[in-house]
Amino acid sequence: MLIRFNEISPSGSHYEIRKIDGLDIPQECTVSGPVEARCTLTRKGEGKVELHGRLQLTLELVCDRCLCSYGKEVDIDLHLLFEVDAIDSWRVKDLEYKIPDLDTILLDEPELDLDDILRQQVHLALPMKKLCSETCKGICSRCGAHRNQVSCGCPETSTESPFDVLSRLKNKA
Ligand SMILES: [Zn+2]
Ligand SMILES: [Zn+2]
Q1: CB 93 within 8 A of CB 107
Q2: Between the chain's N and C termini, which has fewer beta carbons within 10 Å?
Q3: 114 and 152: one domain?
Q4: Angle (nearest 5°) at CA 48 between 42 and 54
Q5: What number of CA atoms fall less than 13 Å from residue 59's CA on the CB side?
Q6: Distance between Cα 134 and ligand 2 center (Å)
Q7: Ligand 1 center from residue 60 Cα (angstroms)
Q8: 39 CA to middle of ligand 1, Å?
Q9: What is the tens place of the pLDDT at every residue in 101-131?
Q10: What is the reported pTM?
């Protein structure tokens, strides 16, 4: 949804979003269940808009360790500031960088794409390491068994440090 700044009321415009385009990344992240986003956009002068809101949805992710899919609830409080990146506003911007709790996003045009913004926020909220659970045992590197479901009895792969490997190589030489 593309919103131009001049469509936004200084007293706040409300938007409810039930679908975010382009959020699904095949085999990595899919939306399962309803999407609920409520945003209030407020104009803060000529080239500035503040966004307050909340985004809730459930994603289906693929665990990095066991490759099973699992559900993850995402619940994000949104608080962003959009500013048109005009050259004559550089000085003002310098002063405003001191406000610590607002993420300022610079725009080329006085318009914002709500789908795009929400999509970015979801991706920022995704964990670096996707695990179905902290204790996920993953897949056995020896026999390929799903170790959350079966204990295959293979010995644990030793966690040797690179230094161990190096010293062994040295001894061989
Ligand atoms: Zn897992
Ligand atoms: Zn095994």
Answers
A1: no
A2: C
A3: no
A4: 45
A5: 25
A6: 20
A7: 13
A8: 34
A9: 568 888 989 999 999 999 999 988 888 899 9
A10: 0.74
Of 74, 71, 165, nearest to 125 (Cα)?
Answer: 74
Residue of 155 and 117 predicted with greater confidence: 117
119 with 56, same domain? yes
Chain segment 65-80, per-residue pLDDT in tens: 999 999 999 999 999 9
d(CA 164, CA 171): 11
Distance CA 112, CA 110 (A): 7
Q: Of the ligands numbered here, which is closest to the C-alpha atom of 137?
A: 1
pLDDT for the residue 95: 54
**Distance from the alpha carbon of residue 46 to the mean position of ligand 2, in angstroms:** 63
The pLDDT of 134-159, averaged and rounded, is 87
**Residues recorded for the chain:** 173
Helix (H, G, I), strand (E, B) or coil at 34: coil
Instruction: State whether 166 and 95 are in the same domain.
Output: no
3 touches 114 (CB < 8 A): yes
* Residue ranges making up the domain that contains 163: 137-173
CB distance 101 to 80 below 8 Å:
no
Ligand found nearest the CA of 133: 1
How remote is the CA of residue 63 from the centroid of ligand 1, in Å?
A: 5
Instruction: State pLDDT tens for residues 32-61.
Output: 889 999 999 999 888 899 999 999 999 999
Amino acid at 20: I
